[in-house]
Predict the structure of 6211_t:CDS:1.
Amino acid sequence: MTRGDIPTRREIQEILESESEVIRWLQDNEIIYKNLTCHQCKNEMKQINKLLIELYYLWLIQVSPKSIGLMTGHSTTTITNNIDKIRQMIGSQYHRRKPVKGVWVIGGVERTHDRRIFVKTINKRDKESVLQIIKDNVEKGSIIYTDQWKAYDDITPILGNQHGNVNHSKYFKDPETGIHTNTIEGNWNGLKILIPARNRNKERIEPYLLEYVWRRQYQGQLWTTMIKAIRNELLIEDKQDDKPKMEVDVTGTRDDPKQP
């Protein structure tokens, strides 16, 4: 894993050494207000603040929930519930197609330097649902590359985007046109690594999709972006249009752990 702007374990421990350091760090990063005082619940406040920083940090460097529980003294259930809240907090909108024990996921990734990505669960695999997801997540004027799934046939006549496809039953890259969807295909294995098999279902998968996209989009600046997300969650609502632009691979997959 590339650390980017993530502090070292020693730097985090220095913040966690005292109550005053914990509160000062939270205030300096505008996560809590400067004038916050709590004389009667000081010990409880210290524990909450310490867990906040340590949990976010350990999750960011991808320590398992069980290990985080052992390191912090909290139950795995408590850690897992808090990690789910983190995923919801940092989640954004994204896209490509693959079912997961009855859940299908559709996603796309830019062919740009930023390689922004989106992944979305989809309840119905009909043309209308698929085209609506593409419309909501891909900028007009983008060139879209897909496989030959029937639902993609009307991308150009209905959405107006230039559209090319590749016949995956014959080859991964069309030898004549050069069209492929390898840019997005490589992300499905990454998702399988991130998402435990037991969580690849309708009830549990969404937070993991949000985490995957967030880590991809902000690689190299995860710590700074997480602090901003915490700040926005507590104090500021930050809304912006962040649709992927330019050339976009769009495909779907079945993320069934029984399949290769």
